[in-house]
Design a protein that fits this description.
alpha/beta; eight-stranded mixed β-sheet; 12 helices
């Protein structure tokens, strides 16, 4: 892989499951692709993969075939809506959630050998604060933390920010309020989180906006489609596209490095130097 073109590497993560994290990642990927970006979407929830399910895709091979050496990363890529490329993970394979150092090294090597053009890599991590989630999240340039209007979502979201800040020295996070009734509710969720982080942590939280719950979003999920393409005029689709525009407008933290940045950070985190 030649590391000459700048690549934006974005993690979509959450402190707990059930907040719509994967749906956000999928629609962000499709929205960016519709705006002209070459997008690679990596399902990094290695034990409970669901990006392929969310998009109605049926991969023949997945990331476990790369780690075992049976396939290259490029060979397992599948084409999604708007031309996005998806790196599918394994569903229900428990060992994938706890890779050995050798297996993680193989994954790092696979990314370093990928030779397709990429403008944005979106990493849909698992939920929570286990080592695999932290490894992939810490390797990204931009971190989107998805929260919803549940006490456990905010509590676990704060725990995730705290661990990434204290263990990985990450100071910049973007917050997205998902499945809210209105914009005011989303802003209030963000402010609640800010009150706690401002008091106890040395971090900066940015606000990416709020995604409303609507019937069109539920229908798109049931149809295994991205709502931005299935129901582009719906309130949720409009909010998701607006969120993707804010993501594009974020100041880039690294002007060059390609996917090599992501690979290098994975290596550094595995070795404990991050």
């Amino acid at each position: 892989m030649t590391d000459t073109a700048p690549v934006n590497v974005i993690a979509v993560t959450s402190g707990k499951g059930g907040v719509g994290k994967t749906n956000v990642a999928v629609n962000l990927a499709v929205s960016l692709a519709e705006s002209g970006q070459q997008v690679l979407l990596f399902d990094a929830d290695l034990g409970l993969a669901n990006v392929d399910i969310a998009l109605g895709l049926k991969p023949q091979f997945d990331i476990q075939h790369v780690i075992s050496g049976e396939r290259s990363l490029e060979e397992i890529l599948i084409l999604g809506p708007a031309g996005i490329r998806v790196i599918p993970a394994s569903s229900g394979v428990a060992r994938m959630a706890a890779l050995s150092q050798t297996e993680q090294a193989g994954l790092v090597r696979a990314f370093s050998e990928l030779a397709i053009p990429v403008d944005t890599l979106i990493v849909d991590t698992g939920a929570g604060i286990d080592n695999t989630v932290l490894t992939f999240t810490a390797a990204c340039q931009e971190l989107i933390v998805v929260v919803c209007d549940e006490p456990t979502s905010l509590t676990d979201g704060y725990a995730l920010v705290k661990v990434l800040n204290q263990q990985c020295n990450i100071k910049r996070f973007q917050v997205l309020a998902n499945m809210v009734d209105n914009e005011l509710q989303g802003r209030q969720l963000f402010e609640k989180l800010c009150k706690v982080t401002d008091r106890f942590l040395d971090v900066h939280l940015g606000y990416l906006g709020a995604i409303p719950r609507d019937e069109y979003l539920r229908r798109a999920v049931r149809a295994q489609r991205a709502v931005v393409t299935e129901f582009p005029r719906s309130d949720s689709a409009k909010a998701l596209r607006a969120m993707s525009e804010r993501v594009l407008a974020l100041p880039k933290m690294h002007s060059e490095g390609g996917l090599g940045f992501f690979v290098e950070r994975l290596i550094e985190y595995r070795s404990g130097s991050v």
